[in-house]
């Protein structure tokens, strides 16, 4: 378990010397299982969770083991943010694969906000990178003293190699080295409205369909607005199943009243929890914690994709609801499951990052996360995931 860049250097050199398979665990949130090396060395960065905010420069220096919640808490103190993912327990390594949450359609993906990094390469060389192309002093290298952009194997004259490395980290950086620090450019959220709504699911899923329709027909075109809609299969004795929508408006403080009024159609659906308020962006970012705390440790399989809004016709929405919700295995078979729809589009699709390019012109993203605890239930989870892919794929293409 590393405590700083020096420990990381020693671990990388040891693994290289002994020919060990090598993996890096940051937050431990990796559907591709990149954070474990069976029979090899797993480098755990979870002790490295410092976040230093410079409110004047509007930057944050984030240690490699930091969680998204760590970043949100520290930046929100200054009415600033990095657009991050939905779950505060996800690691900052999310940025290396893109990074999409409710603010992405207004601000772009997380990776577009990387302006510096400290990276330990496979040969143990430390690279301190800066978007300015200088020595990287603005990256707050800390315990990588003496490392300069342009030094080390593969670095070209004038730091060209390190500039290419920094470019690569913005969305495709999981295999480019061990990132011990990232420097993020921050965004002003002083005029935000945010929070979340919770509704009980009903047998006909009328509320789920109404919120989904509102997202597509109204929410998509609201200026500065981002939201999602999730369904979780909590058992009845735990108050489930439930629906939740994380929402955020970003913009001028002068527009707060009109933005609160724009959400009245969601309030008309009689949520059992409504904590959406001026300045509630942090509440929106932490909304999933109750679900995450309730879910037991489990295995997971994911199905995910995207679609244009026009494809979500009433008939398609009925078919998707049947596949995603009615077709889901019961809670005693697959606890800890969720279905999430996200609004995309806008600035997210204007990004040149891999996550945006892969989305094409999609305006909606969907995710079906299926969890199970008993290995005997793995076939049911896998069958559901395949059925969802088939159903959503057909709807997405009309």
TrEMBL record:
Domain FAD-binding PCMH-type: 1-189
Comp. bias (Basic and acidic residues): 140-151
Signal peptide extent: none
Gene3D superfamilies linked: 3.30.465.10, 3.40.462.20, Uridine Diphospho-n-acetylenolpyruvylglucosamine Reductase, domain 2 (3.30.43.10)
Gene Ontology MF terms: FAD binding; oxidoreductase activity
Record-stated family: Belongs to the oxygen-dependent FAD-linked oxidoreductase family.
Protein name: FAD-binding PCMH-type domain-containing protein
Species the sequence originates in: Chlamydomonas euryale
Lineage, broadest ranks: Eukaryota, Viridiplantae, Chlorophyta, core chlorophytes, Chlorophyceae
């Amino acid at each position: 378990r590393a405590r700083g860049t020096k420990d990381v250097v020693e671990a990388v050199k040891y693994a290289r010397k002994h020919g060990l398979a090598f993996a890096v665990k940051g937050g431990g949130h990796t559907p591709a299982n990149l954070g474990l090396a069976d029979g090899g060395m797993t480098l755990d960065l979870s002790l490295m969770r410092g976040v230093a905010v410079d409110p004047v420069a509007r930057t944050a220096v984030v240690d490699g083991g930091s969680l998204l919640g760590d970043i949100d808490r520290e930046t929100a103190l200054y009415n600033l943010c990095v657009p991050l993912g939905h779950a505060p327990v996800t690691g900052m390594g999310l940025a290396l694969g893109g990074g999409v949450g409710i603010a992405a359609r207004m601000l772009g993906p997380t990776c577009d906000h990387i302006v510096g990094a400290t990276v330990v390469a496979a040969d143990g060389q430390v690279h301190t990178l800066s978007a300015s192309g200088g020595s990287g002093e603005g990256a707050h290298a800390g315990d990588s003293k003496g490392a300069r952009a342009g030094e080390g194997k593969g670095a070209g004259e004038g730091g060209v190699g390190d500039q290419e490395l920094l470019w690569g980290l913005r969305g495709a950086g999981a295999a480019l080295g061990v990132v011990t620090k990232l420097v993020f450019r921050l965004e002003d959220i002083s005029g935000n409205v945010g929070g979340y709504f919770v509704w009980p699911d009903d047998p006909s899923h009328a509320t789920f369909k109404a919120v989904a329709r509102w997202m597509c027909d109204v929410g998509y075109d609201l200026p500065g607005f981002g939201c999602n809609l999730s369904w979780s299969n909590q058992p009845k004795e735990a108050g489930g199943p439930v629906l939740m929508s994380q929402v955020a408006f970003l913009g001028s403080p002068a527009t707060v009243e009109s933005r609160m009024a724009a959400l009245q159609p969601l309030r008309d659906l009689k949520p059992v929890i409504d904590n959406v308020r001026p300045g509630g962006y942090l509440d929106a970012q932490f909304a999933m914690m109750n679900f995450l705390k309730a879910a037991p440790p489990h295995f997971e399989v994911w199905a995910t994709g995207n679609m244009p809004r026009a494809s979500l016709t009433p008939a398609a929405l009925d078919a998707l609801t049947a596949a995603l919700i009615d077709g889901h295995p019961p809670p005693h078979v697959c606890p800890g499951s969720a279905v999430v729809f996200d609004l995309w589009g806008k600035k997210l699709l204007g990004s040149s990052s891999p996550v945006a390019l892969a989305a094409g012109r999609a305006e909606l993203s969907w995710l079906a996360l299926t969890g199970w605890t008993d290995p005997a239930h793995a076939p049911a989870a896998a069958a559901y995931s395949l059925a969802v892919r088939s159903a959503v794929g057909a709807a997405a293409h009309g």
